[in-house]
Design goal:
Blueprint lengths: L13 H26 L5 E10 L12 E10 L3 E6 L14 E5 L3 E8 L2 E4 L1 H8 L3 H11 L26 H4 L2 H10 L14 H8 L2 H9 L14 H7 L3 H7 L1
Antiparallel strand pairs: 1-2, 1-5, 2-3, 3-4, 5-6
Helix pairs in contact: 5-7, 6-7, 6-8, 8-9
């Protein structure tokens, strides 16, 4: 797979290109929500999927340069997105539905999660909905079974209109301080513990944009300079994902 965006010169639709770029810029919000979904005792997201541009680098004679397909069961390490392909490719022969895949974040062209029948993300979907007449749009939304809202407004975070602070930090992070203080007090070895890839809790919470938990970790001795086995600090991830509210903390 290529390490460069696949949509910059291969797609001529300016509205779609803008949607691809915006989806990629805001992908950290999708991952933030999904990290909290994975911590919940009862899952609440009705959909959590990412659209990725796939290419077949082995066959230059294919009729398309790339195919954009959705995948779910998403994981993210700050650089690569992992998931299971939902669609059967129309042209590509190097991948099939049900395959587990790993792609760099530059191949993300959309993301979508649905909570309480309301959609978040779905940038390319909104471009298509904007081009439908009212009857087509109603039929489209009925087929999906969700509220996609205004085609000109793509939401990024739960209740962001009512609570703009949710754009900076997930409400579950803000309310979890005492639980995480108790956990790390009882399990101090976890504060700087590394997984098989060298990620500490500080790396993972920085990737997810969770300021409150980052503050808890730092107050309890988390080492800012600890690196993953690929050489990244928590600050590197915060900067790479543009979590501005974490950068000063992690310098």
């Amino acid at each position: 797979m290529s390490n460069k965006p696949v949509f910059s010169s291969k797609h001529k639709d300016p509205d779609m290109i803008a949607a691809f770029i915006r989806a990629q810029e805001t992908f950290p919000y999708f991952w933030r929500e999904l990290t909290w979904e994975y911590r919940r005792m009862v899952r609440v997201l009705q959909i959590a999927a990412v659209k990725v541009a796939f290419m077949d680098d082995e066959d230059a004679d294919l009729p398309v340069n790339s195919e954009m397909m959705w995948m779910d069961e998403i994981d993210f390490d700050g650089e690569f997105v992992y998931g299971v392909l939902n669609n059967e490719p129309r042209h590509l022969r190097n991948i099939k539905a049900g395959d587990s895949v790993k792609v760099p974040m530059v191949q993300v062209v959309d993301w979508l999660f649905v909570l309480q029948n309301k959609s978040y993300g779905g940038f390319t979907i909104q471009v298509l909905r904007a081009r439908m007449d009212e009857e087509e749009r109603t039929a489209h939304d009925k087929a999906w079974g969700f509220d996609f809202g205004d085609t000109k407004e793509v939401l990024l975070a739960y209740e962001q209109l009512e609570h703009p602070e949710n754009l900076e930090e997930h409400p579950m992070s803000r309310s979890a301080r005492s639980q995480y203080e108790a956990f790390f007090t009882q399990n101090p070895q976890e504060i700087n513990g590394q997984d098989e890839f060298g990620y500490t809790p500080l790396h993972k919470e920085a990737i997810a944009g969770n300021r409150t938990i980052v503050e808890v970790l730092l107050s309890m001795g988390a080492q800012k300079d600890r690196r993953t086995y690929s050489g990244k600090t928590a600050f590197d991830f915060a900067k790479q994902l543009d979590w501005k509210h974490l950068m000063e903390l992690l310098k």
